[in-house]
Amino acid sequence: MVQGLAKLGKSGTVRAPTNLKENYRPERKELANAIRALAMDAVQKAKSGHPGAPMGMADIAEVLWNGYLRHNPANPRWSNRDRFVMSNGHGSTLLYALLHLSGYDVTIEDLKHFRQLHSRTPGHPEFGLTPGIETTTGPLGQGLANGVGMALAERVLSAQFNREGFDIVDHYTYVAVGDGCLMEGISHEACSLAGALGLGKLIVLYDDNQISIDGDVRGWFADDTRKRFESYRWQVLGAVDGHDAGAVAGALEKARTFTDKPSLVILATTIAYGAPQAGTAVCHGVPLGPEAVAAARINLDWPHAEFVIPGEIYAAWDGRARGAQLEAEWNALFARYRRAYPQLADEFERRLARRSPGEWEARARSFIAALVAKSERIATRTKRALRLRPAAPRASRRVRRPDRIQPHALEGRERPGIQGHHPAILRRQLCPLRCARIRHVGNHERDRSARGFHPLRRNLSRVLRLRAQRRPHGGADEGAEHLRLYP
């Protein structure tokens, strides 16, 4: 067994690579085909799933994960890792294959149990269930909004904590999207915000295969996607051949040079690349079938049996050594940072641990008790302001989405001076804001629905220090007894 190639699963069993060819380096297409094979095998075994997107995006994912993504499979929660979100979560076998191949605690047995009850590999990725999953995705477009929140969190934290020579917060957010994600209204709102804030470390990879589960999308999706995102102040690259690794790498290199605006990379792909049904809706949301899987193996020149990955493929994919080195370098940087800025280091670690600041709990309990004692029935909007008033001086940072009226006076604070849209102004006045405590992120009451702003709000909560909870669908006469404050 070659050193460093064994995979240790959650069961504690070690699987050694077999048939390892000495001094052999697989071609990039072979590495991508490993994804395709695992995806079609997992879907076929489950007799349910979406093989088309994983097979179509395999070349894109291989270039990103083996060439650009900074992560540590041994520690999926490393704070300065790059984030990868698959907004088109129905193609989850792409993500599971990537996690397995690169060395995360996702075993071949997990892939064999795809979509099964109590499986660690459900039909759509679920945060907290599978190591390496950044956010739960499924409803189209919401993962994209999550990604905007993650990129915004990176911007906020980097401005609050980075110092000259100490970029302790410095990572990218990559989001994979399909046609369906861009059809959803939430994608318009979230991407408009990302462009307004100039989130340069957000890179969206658009799988432009022009196929949905109902067929060719050109009959009902006629947007000019390039012009649309350019109007949001995004950098738009492509269309790029999504099956040409060199072209994909070139596009990613160029996207990473734009630091003042997010990037959309349009990648033209063929759904279910390699399968006999490639390019059609037939392979979008159903297994390929045993005969088609066998034919795809021939087309892809993949002679290996079901769920078998050669040792040299595992060796080329394994990201554990590089990931450990990246995290070790960051740990050394943070150790120097702690010596230079001990108070900032303590605050940074407190936020990562999601611990309440100082006397927060006692103040919150006292405030709630005072409201309950009054037994007032007040309007929900007024209650929100009352929630925030005592917390404003204590909350280190807050993010809020204003309604059509501005309750600054009720909240006991002055309206922050926020003018203009240029990223330099935003960096200075709003984003992040060593001085400002409030971020305005739009003005649409319709976004109160779960299909509106809530997914973005959930990920913005990564930098929230104050949140308030009330009864679902609480009315204007909601009583104080239902109020809770928590950081």
Overview of the molecule:
It is a single chain. By secondary structure, the chain is α/β, with parallel strands linked by helices. It has 17 helices and eleven strands. A five-stranded parallel β-sheet has the order 3-4-5-9-8, with helices on both faces. Helix 5 packs parallel to helix 17 and helix 12 crosses helix 13.
Considering the chains and any ligands shown, give keywords for the structure:
487 residues; alpha/beta; 5-stranded parallel beta sheet; two-stranded antiparallel ribbon; 17 helices; 11 strands; 9% strand; globular; disordered N terminus
List the helices and strands and how they pair.
Layout: E1 7-8, E2 14-15, H1 28-46, H2 52-67, E3 83-86, H3 92-102, H4 108-112, H5 142-161, E4 173-177, H6 179-183, H7 185-197, E5 202-208, E6 211-212, E7 215-216, H8 225-231, E8 235-241, H9 245-255, E9 263-268, H10 290-299, H11 311-317, H12 320-340, H13 342-353, H14 360-374, H15 380-391, H16 423-429, H17 454-460, E10 467-469, E11 484-486
Parallel strand pairs: 3-4, 4-5, 5-9, 8-9
Antiparallel strand pairs: 1-2, 6-7, 10-11
Helix pairs in contact: 1-2, 1-3, 2-3, 2-9, 5-7, 5-17, 12-13
